[in-house]
Specification:
- The complex is a heterodimer of chains A (196) and B (103).
- In chain A, 0% of the residues lie in helices and 59% in strands.
- Chain A contains no helices and 16 strands.
- In chain A, strand 12 (147-152) and strand 13 form a beta hairpin.
- The N and C termini of chain A lie far apart (38 Å).
- Chain B is 0% helix and 63% strand.
- In chain B, strand 1 and strand 2 (19-27) form a beta hairpin.
- The two termini of chain B are 18 Å apart.
- At the A-B interface, strand 1, strand 2, strand 3, strand 14 and strand 15 of A face strand 1, strand 2, strand 5, strand 6 and strand 7 of B.
Protein backbone atom coordinates (compact mmCIF):
# COMPACT_ATOMS: atom_id res chain seq x y z
CA UNK A 1 0.00 0.00 0.00
CA UNK A 2 1.26 3.46 -0.87
CA UNK A 3 -0.19 6.93 -0.71
CA UNK A 4 0.09 10.39 -2.24
CA UNK A 5 -0.69 13.77 -0.72
CA UNK A 6 -1.43 16.79 -2.89
CA UNK A 7 -1.21 20.04 -1.00
CA UNK A 8 -3.63 21.85 -3.31
CA UNK A 9 -6.19 21.22 -0.63
CA UNK A 10 -9.66 19.90 -1.04
CA UNK A 11 -11.23 16.54 -1.05
CA UNK A 12 -11.62 13.78 -3.65
CA UNK A 13 -15.14 12.77 -4.67
CA UNK A 14 -14.61 10.52 -7.66
CA UNK A 15 -11.80 8.99 -9.74
CA UNK A 16 -12.06 7.79 -13.34
CA UNK A 17 -9.51 6.60 -15.87
CA UNK A 18 -9.36 7.70 -19.51
CA UNK A 19 -8.45 5.50 -22.48
CA UNK A 20 -4.78 6.56 -22.32
CA UNK A 21 -4.53 5.22 -18.76
CA UNK A 22 -4.37 8.56 -16.96
CA UNK A 23 -6.59 9.12 -13.96
CA UNK A 24 -8.91 12.08 -13.43
CA UNK A 25 -9.89 12.88 -9.87
CA UNK A 26 -12.83 15.15 -9.16
CA UNK A 27 -12.42 17.29 -6.09
CA UNK A 28 -13.69 20.34 -4.36
CA UNK A 29 -11.44 23.11 -3.12
CA UNK A 30 -11.35 24.65 0.33
CA UNK A 31 -13.64 22.14 1.92
CA UNK A 32 -11.46 22.66 4.99
CA UNK A 33 -13.36 25.93 5.44
CA UNK A 34 -16.75 24.33 5.13
CA UNK A 35 -17.59 24.85 8.77
CA UNK A 36 -17.27 28.58 8.24
CA UNK A 37 -19.72 28.63 5.34
CA UNK A 38 -17.16 30.03 2.92
CA UNK A 39 -18.76 30.77 -0.44
CA UNK A 40 -17.83 30.22 -4.08
CA UNK A 41 -16.15 26.86 -3.93
CA UNK A 42 -14.88 25.91 -7.37
CA UNK A 43 -14.59 22.37 -8.70
CA UNK A 44 -11.09 20.94 -8.93
CA UNK A 45 -9.84 18.34 -11.39
CA UNK A 46 -6.54 16.59 -10.75
CA UNK A 47 -4.99 14.54 -13.51
CA UNK A 48 -2.37 11.97 -12.58
CA UNK A 49 -0.56 9.32 -14.57
CA UNK A 50 -0.26 5.56 -14.22
CA UNK A 51 2.57 6.01 -11.72
CA UNK A 52 0.27 8.18 -9.59
CA UNK A 53 2.33 11.30 -10.37
CA UNK A 54 0.30 14.48 -10.67
CA UNK A 55 0.47 15.95 -14.16
CA UNK A 56 -2.20 18.64 -14.02
CA UNK A 57 -4.41 20.50 -11.58
CA UNK A 58 -7.20 22.82 -12.58
CA UNK A 59 -9.97 24.60 -10.77
CA UNK A 60 -13.19 25.58 -12.44
CA UNK A 61 -15.91 27.91 -11.30
CA UNK A 62 -18.54 27.94 -14.01
CA UNK A 63 -20.56 30.68 -12.41
CA UNK A 64 -19.14 32.66 -9.52
CA UNK A 65 -22.60 33.03 -8.00
CA UNK A 66 -22.45 29.38 -7.00
CA UNK A 67 -20.49 27.10 -4.75
CA UNK A 68 -20.10 23.70 -6.37
CA UNK A 69 -20.32 20.46 -4.45
CA UNK A 70 -19.51 17.84 -7.07
CA UNK A 71 -20.40 14.20 -6.52
CA UNK A 72 -19.57 12.25 -9.64
CA UNK A 73 -17.47 12.37 -12.79
CA UNK A 74 -17.75 10.07 -15.82
CA UNK A 75 -16.44 10.01 -19.35
CA UNK A 76 -19.12 10.49 -21.97
CA UNK A 77 -19.21 8.31 -25.08
CA UNK A 78 -17.44 11.10 -27.05
CA UNK A 79 -14.58 11.32 -24.51
CA UNK A 80 -15.71 14.46 -22.70
CA UNK A 81 -16.10 14.70 -18.94
CA UNK A 82 -19.53 14.86 -17.33
CA UNK A 83 -19.59 16.37 -13.85
CA UNK A 84 -22.66 16.26 -11.63
CA UNK A 85 -23.50 17.43 -8.15
CA UNK A 86 -25.14 20.27 -6.33
CA UNK A 87 -24.57 23.98 -6.75
CA UNK A 88 -25.50 26.36 -3.97
CA UNK A 89 -26.50 29.94 -4.64
CA UNK A 90 -26.30 32.39 -1.77
CA UNK A 91 -28.76 35.26 -1.49
CA UNK A 92 -28.04 37.29 1.63
CA UNK A 93 -28.17 34.90 4.54
CA UNK A 94 -30.25 32.29 2.74
CA UNK A 95 -29.15 29.85 0.10
CA UNK A 96 -30.73 27.67 -2.55
CA UNK A 97 -29.41 24.43 -3.93
CA UNK A 98 -29.66 23.23 -7.51
CA UNK A 99 -28.58 19.93 -9.02
CA UNK A 100 -26.11 20.56 -11.86
CA UNK A 101 -24.80 18.67 -14.90
CA UNK A 102 -21.72 20.05 -16.69
CA UNK A 103 -20.15 18.53 -19.81
CA UNK A 104 -16.64 19.69 -20.59
CA UNK A 105 -13.80 18.53 -22.79
CA UNK A 106 -10.46 17.53 -21.27
CA UNK A 107 -9.14 21.08 -21.72
CA UNK A 108 -11.96 22.52 -19.65
CA UNK A 109 -14.07 23.89 -22.50
CA UNK A 110 -17.69 23.57 -21.44
CA UNK A 111 -20.23 22.35 -23.99
CA UNK A 112 -23.25 21.81 -21.76
CA UNK A 113 -24.08 23.59 -18.57
CA UNK A 114 -27.36 22.77 -17.00
CA UNK A 115 -28.71 23.83 -13.67
CA UNK A 116 -31.98 22.03 -13.27
CA UNK A 117 -35.08 22.84 -11.26
CA UNK A 118 -34.58 25.48 -8.62
CA UNK A 119 -35.16 24.29 -5.11
CA UNK A 120 -35.65 25.80 -1.71
CA UNK A 121 -33.80 25.08 1.49
CA UNK A 122 -36.78 22.95 2.51
CA UNK A 123 -36.50 20.73 -0.54
CA UNK A 124 -32.95 19.50 -0.87
CA UNK A 125 -32.12 17.14 -3.70
CA UNK A 126 -28.73 16.33 -5.10
CA UNK A 127 -27.48 14.43 -8.13
CA UNK A 128 -25.14 11.90 -6.57
CA UNK A 129 -24.34 9.36 -9.26
CA UNK A 130 -24.32 9.09 -13.03
CA UNK A 131 -23.83 6.20 -15.42
CA UNK A 132 -22.85 6.44 -19.06
CA UNK A 133 -23.60 3.14 -20.69
CA UNK A 134 -26.11 2.41 -23.42
CA UNK A 135 -28.13 5.05 -21.59
CA UNK A 136 -27.04 8.02 -19.53
CA UNK A 137 -28.75 7.80 -16.16
CA UNK A 138 -28.63 10.06 -13.13
CA UNK A 139 -29.32 9.10 -9.53
CA UNK A 140 -30.91 11.87 -7.47
CA UNK A 141 -31.28 11.70 -3.70
CA UNK A 142 -33.64 13.97 -1.76
CA UNK A 143 -32.92 14.46 1.93
CA UNK A 144 -36.24 15.99 2.87
CA UNK A 145 -38.53 13.38 1.34
CA UNK A 146 -36.06 10.53 2.07
CA UNK A 147 -36.42 9.26 -1.45
CA UNK A 148 -34.40 8.63 -4.57
CA UNK A 149 -35.09 8.83 -8.28
CA UNK A 150 -33.21 7.50 -11.28
CA UNK A 151 -33.77 9.76 -14.26
CA UNK A 152 -32.61 9.53 -17.86
CA UNK A 153 -30.96 12.27 -19.88
CA UNK A 154 -34.35 13.64 -20.97
CA UNK A 155 -35.40 13.98 -17.34
CA UNK A 156 -37.80 11.02 -17.46
CA UNK A 157 -38.18 9.01 -14.29
CA UNK A 158 -36.86 5.44 -14.69
CA UNK A 159 -37.10 4.21 -11.11
CA UNK A 160 -37.87 5.70 -7.72
CA UNK A 161 -38.05 4.55 -4.12
CA UNK A 162 -37.71 5.38 -0.45
CA UNK A 163 -34.50 5.82 1.48
CA UNK A 164 -33.95 5.49 5.20
CA UNK A 165 -30.38 5.94 6.37
CA UNK A 166 -28.87 4.04 3.48
CA UNK A 167 -26.02 5.03 1.27
CA UNK A 168 -27.14 4.56 -2.32
CA UNK A 169 -25.19 4.23 -5.55
CA UNK A 170 -25.88 3.27 -9.14
CA UNK A 171 -23.61 1.02 -11.22
CA UNK A 172 -23.66 -0.66 -14.60
CA UNK A 173 -22.44 -4.18 -15.29
CA UNK A 174 -22.79 -4.15 -19.05
CA UNK A 175 -24.64 -2.06 -21.61
CA UNK A 176 -28.11 -2.91 -20.42
CA UNK A 177 -27.73 -4.27 -16.88
CA UNK A 178 -27.71 -1.87 -13.92
CA UNK A 179 -27.23 -2.33 -10.18
CA UNK A 180 -28.50 -0.19 -7.39
CA UNK A 181 -26.60 -0.76 -4.13
CA UNK A 182 -28.04 0.32 -0.78
CA UNK A 183 -25.98 -0.03 2.40
CA UNK A 184 -27.13 1.18 5.80
CA UNK A 185 -25.01 2.20 8.77
CA UNK A 186 -25.28 -1.31 10.22
CA UNK A 187 -23.55 -2.59 7.06
CA UNK A 188 -26.70 -4.31 5.80
CA UNK A 189 -26.53 -4.53 2.03
CA UNK A 190 -29.23 -4.66 -0.61
CA UNK A 191 -28.41 -4.97 -4.28
CA UNK A 192 -31.13 -4.47 -6.87
CA UNK A 193 -30.58 -5.45 -10.46
CA UNK A 194 -32.55 -3.88 -13.29
CA UNK A 195 -32.52 -3.83 -17.05
CA UNK A 196 -33.25 -0.67 -19.00
CA UNK B 1 -6.49 -7.06 19.56
CA UNK B 2 -10.17 -6.17 19.63
CA UNK B 3 -11.38 -2.71 18.84
CA UNK B 4 -14.86 -1.40 19.52
CA UNK B 5 -16.35 0.94 16.95
CA UNK B 6 -19.01 3.44 17.89
CA UNK B 7 -20.26 4.80 14.60
CA UNK B 8 -20.01 3.56 11.05
CA UNK B 9 -20.41 5.70 7.96
CA UNK B 10 -20.70 4.26 4.49
CA UNK B 11 -18.69 6.54 2.20
CA UNK B 12 -18.64 4.92 -1.22
CA UNK B 13 -19.43 1.75 -3.11
CA UNK B 14 -17.98 0.29 -6.32
CA UNK B 15 -18.56 -2.92 -8.19
CA UNK B 16 -15.39 -4.69 -9.28
CA UNK B 17 -15.53 -8.11 -10.90
CA UNK B 18 -17.78 -10.18 -8.59
CA UNK B 19 -17.30 -7.98 -5.58
CA UNK B 20 -18.87 -4.97 -4.04
CA UNK B 21 -16.13 -2.72 -2.63
CA UNK B 22 -17.34 -0.56 0.22
CA UNK B 23 -15.36 2.22 1.89
CA UNK B 24 -16.38 2.74 5.51
CA UNK B 25 -15.32 5.15 8.20
CA UNK B 26 -15.42 4.08 11.81
CA UNK B 27 -15.30 6.21 14.91
CA UNK B 28 -13.41 4.42 17.64
CA UNK B 29 -14.62 6.44 20.61
CA UNK B 30 -17.99 7.63 21.82
CA UNK B 31 -17.09 11.27 21.16
CA UNK B 32 -16.56 10.51 17.46
CA UNK B 33 -13.02 11.88 17.44
CA UNK B 34 -10.84 8.96 16.37
CA UNK B 35 -11.52 8.12 12.76
CA UNK B 36 -10.50 4.92 10.98
CA UNK B 37 -11.15 3.84 7.42
CA UNK B 38 -11.69 0.33 6.13
CA UNK B 39 -12.52 -1.25 2.83
CA UNK B 40 -14.82 -4.23 2.69
CA UNK B 41 -14.63 -6.51 -0.31
CA UNK B 42 -17.97 -8.31 -0.38
CA UNK B 43 -18.28 -11.07 -2.95
CA UNK B 44 -21.95 -10.95 -3.84
CA UNK B 45 -21.86 -14.41 -5.40
CA UNK B 46 -20.38 -16.21 -2.36
CA UNK B 47 -21.47 -13.76 0.34
CA UNK B 48 -17.93 -13.73 1.79
CA UNK B 49 -16.49 -10.46 3.15
CA UNK B 50 -12.85 -9.50 3.48
CA UNK B 51 -11.58 -6.39 5.25
CA UNK B 52 -8.66 -4.09 4.70
CA UNK B 53 -7.62 -1.43 7.18
CA UNK B 54 -6.45 1.89 5.74
CA UNK B 55 -3.78 3.34 7.99
CA UNK B 56 -2.64 6.34 5.93
CA UNK B 57 -4.06 9.82 5.65
CA UNK B 58 -6.21 9.60 8.77
CA UNK B 59 -7.64 12.88 10.00
CA UNK B 60 -10.55 13.74 7.78
CA UNK B 61 -11.06 10.54 5.91
CA UNK B 62 -12.02 8.98 2.63
CA UNK B 63 -15.06 9.35 0.51
CA UNK B 64 -14.29 7.59 -2.73
CA UNK B 65 -13.14 4.19 -3.87
CA UNK B 66 -11.98 3.34 -7.38
CA UNK B 67 -11.05 -0.04 -8.84
CA UNK B 68 -9.62 -1.27 -12.12
CA UNK B 69 -7.45 -4.22 -13.17
CA UNK B 70 -4.28 -2.41 -12.06
CA UNK B 71 -5.20 -0.57 -8.89
CA UNK B 72 -7.57 0.06 -6.07
CA UNK B 73 -7.47 3.75 -5.15
CA UNK B 74 -9.14 5.28 -2.13
CA UNK B 75 -9.46 9.06 -2.34
CA UNK B 76 -10.22 11.62 0.29
CA UNK B 77 -8.46 14.22 2.30
CA UNK B 78 -6.05 14.42 5.16
CA UNK B 79 -4.87 16.96 7.68
CA UNK B 80 -1.17 17.73 7.30
CA UNK B 81 1.28 19.84 9.24
CA UNK B 82 2.89 22.27 6.81
CA UNK B 83 5.21 25.07 8.03
CA UNK B 84 3.82 24.64 11.56
CA UNK B 85 0.27 25.08 10.35
CA UNK B 86 -2.38 22.43 10.03
CA UNK B 87 -3.81 22.40 6.52
CA UNK B 88 -5.81 20.08 4.36
CA UNK B 89 -4.43 17.97 1.53
CA UNK B 90 -5.92 15.68 -1.05
CA UNK B 91 -5.01 12.13 -0.14
CA UNK B 92 -4.90 9.05 -2.36
CA UNK B 93 -4.12 5.61 -0.97
CA UNK B 94 -3.53 2.91 -3.56
CA UNK B 95 -2.50 -0.69 -3.91
CA UNK B 96 -2.36 -3.39 -6.53
CA UNK B 97 -5.71 -4.94 -7.44
CA UNK B 98 -4.16 -8.39 -7.03
CA UNK B 99 -4.16 -7.73 -3.29
CA UNK B 100 -7.97 -7.78 -3.32
CA UNK B 101 -7.88 -11.55 -3.00
CA UNK B 102 -5.58 -11.26 0.02
CA UNK B 103 -7.77 -9.01 2.11
Amino acid sequence: MDYRLFRDGGEIHEIERDISGNYFALGSVNRADRFFETRNYPISIIKFDQNMKKIDFDTMSYNRKYSYFPNDLVFSSDGDLILIGTAREYEGISSQTLPFVIKTDLNGVVSTKELSKKQTQEHQCSLINTIVSDQTLYLEKCQDTKSFEIIDIQGRKVLNGDLKSQSISLHSLNKTMYFLALIDDHRNKKIYKFVF
Amino acid sequence: MCREYFAILTKDVKFYENSLLVAYQFYADSLNTKLYSKIESFNFETGVSNWHHIDSCIGIGFRNIYADKDRIIVGGSSLILHYNQVSMAICLVYFNSIRLGNF
